[in-house]
């Protein structure tokens, strides 16, 4: 009951977490400031890229026509949260890890049927499936994708030294679903197609305020802090967090830089939301070299911390020895 009570959303249809935020700039892609922000790995909402213009007609009926019997990955959750976990890492948790969501594969038409009949109190649904040859059987859909504004996307990729495009993740979420705060190690052009999503972003240097799970944990890259019930005793620095907020509507594209934390909500204006992201691998500037500029940026320090943790897990072989060894290095010497 408590969770549902807290589910009450105040205007504009979104929960207030008591986190002070500033607005992420909303600019035309023609504005020179837009490219400057992207070049400096700062988030920006672009209002007129037409990146996925040909997908603006994608609604549940059209997608059902064109994805019909394709198998798609659907997550089910008893709460509004869809906290990602890597099922391959659960064995290191001496089985006291309980997955917060179920992951099932169902035909797209089955998913749409359940999506349409979904009501508050049912298990929530979140379809997340990469666009690839496995599901792209309709020429109409392939043509839609071919007519994305690839020229602009490729120009961003090239002029900002991003690595290759790895994924276009198609996401269809029941209203009110939340993807809790986490970071990804890829640059992201996040295109909103139907409905509205609220993003709260935090820079990489807020690592110490968001307390990510250990790198070996199934929830690696996810914040340990439950924004609905923050444990300020365990995570005191969360108290000082400040966010960067944006509301994305149909046609908007958010540039979400590599290693920037993001909390994402599907708002209640529509029964479901449709989004498509473009994930690009990090470019060469993530590796330190003679041409690296100092002092290092937050995202570079984050990469170093992750590598140190991974190296220790591999060297010690017992994840329970990592903490004591780090404390031995730190205590009375670096603190
Ligand atoms: C799945 C998505 C968040 C959302 O839209 O729920 C995300 O984290 C990303 O695109 O990096
Ligand atoms: Zn993400």
UniProtKB/TrEMBL annotation:
Residues 125-297 form the JmjC domain. Signal peptide: none annotated. Coiled coil: none annotated. SMART domains: JmjC. PANTHER family: HYPOXIA-INDUCIBLE FACTOR 1 ALPHA INHIBITOR-RELATED, HYPOXIA-INDUCIBLE FACTOR 1-ALPHA INHIBITOR. This is Hypoxia-inducible factor 1-alpha inhibitor-like isoform X1. It comes from Limulus polyphemus (Atlantic horseshoe crab). The gene is LOC106459917.
